[in-house]
Design brief:
256 residues; globular; mainly alpha
């Protein structure tokens, strides 16, 4: 183990073959951890070599390696002479496409959207998103950082996708949301947050409530058509104990 800056200085001149050789010789050398674990060192390596490393990885390793990439990192990869990011995103499997877009931040997704706008015949982002189904769709929708961008798309109907989810799926999406994300959903005209919350069975409501922070509790408490206190009082003893195991729930309850 060594300081990341020193490590970056050392590996900065390496090519893809050098990394692959090192990984093959040592069980302690992980390309994913060493090369992609510190994105500050990312662009110290030739972009063609970076692409070469990604091409030799499994889908799981690609997801891990690419998970923290921002707009600049994607642009750097796209600058490689032997790589076309738009073409790649247009042809990878739905599963890997969902894995990547479910963890990327708005800047990365914005870069993809720009690529799509420039060359829809090669990569149509909205079409790919619209055609996602099942677990792949849920992965993307579970990335609340993407909601504003998805909501702006012409052919991707975020309201329709959210409304079409089964209860277990939107329980997963509602769990852990912060105040801003609840506010986003509550303001949507085509999605009724109150109806979704009211329709949750007791176990799923418990899963949502025990995952929230104090600000989210306060937001739900202020909703006109959702009676949070009544919901808490209606929980059976086991579910109530599960909810109050959360420190944020305790804080909220101590103030009511």
């Amino acid at each position: 183990k060594m300081d990341s800056t020193l490590r970056g200085d050392i590996i900065g001149g390496w090519g893809a073959d050098s990394f692959s050789t090192m990984a093959a010789e040592s069980d302690d050398f992980s390309i994913v951890d060493v090369v992609f674990g510190d994105m500050d060192q990312f662009e110290g390596i030739n972009s063609d070599d970076m692409v070469g490393l990604l091409r030799g990885m499994s889908p799981d390793d690609i997801k891990t390696a690419a998970g923290d990439m921002d707009r600049d990192n994607l642009a750097f990869l796209d600058s490689a002479s032997n790589f076309d990011l738009g073409l790649t995103m247009g042809t990878i499997s739905d599963s890997l496409f969902a894995d990547l877009t479910s963890v990327w931040d708005p800047s990365s997704l914005g870069y993809l959207k720009d690529l799509s706008s420039e060359s829809k015949h090669i990569f149509d982002m909205e079409s790919r998103l619209t055609n996602l189904e099942g677990d792949d769709l849920i992965k993307v929708l579970d990335n609340e950082r993407s909601w504003s961008l998805l909501d702006e798309m012409e052919s991707f109907d975020l309201d329709d996708k959210l409304n079409g989810l089964q209860e277990e799926s939107y329980t997963k999406i509602l769990s852990g949301l912060d105040e801003g994300s609840f506010d986003f959903l509550d303001k949507k005209k085509g999605f009724n947050l109150n109806t979704k919350l009211e329709s949750l069975n007791e176990d799923n409501l418990t899963d949502v409530l025990k995952s929230l922070n104090n600000a989210s509790y306060e937001f739900l408490d202020k909703m006109e058509d959702f009676d949070l206190d009544n919901k808490l009082e209606s929980l059976d003893d086991d579910n109530l104990m599960d909810v109050v195991s959360s420190e944020d729930a305790k804080i909220y309850l101590s103030n009511t």
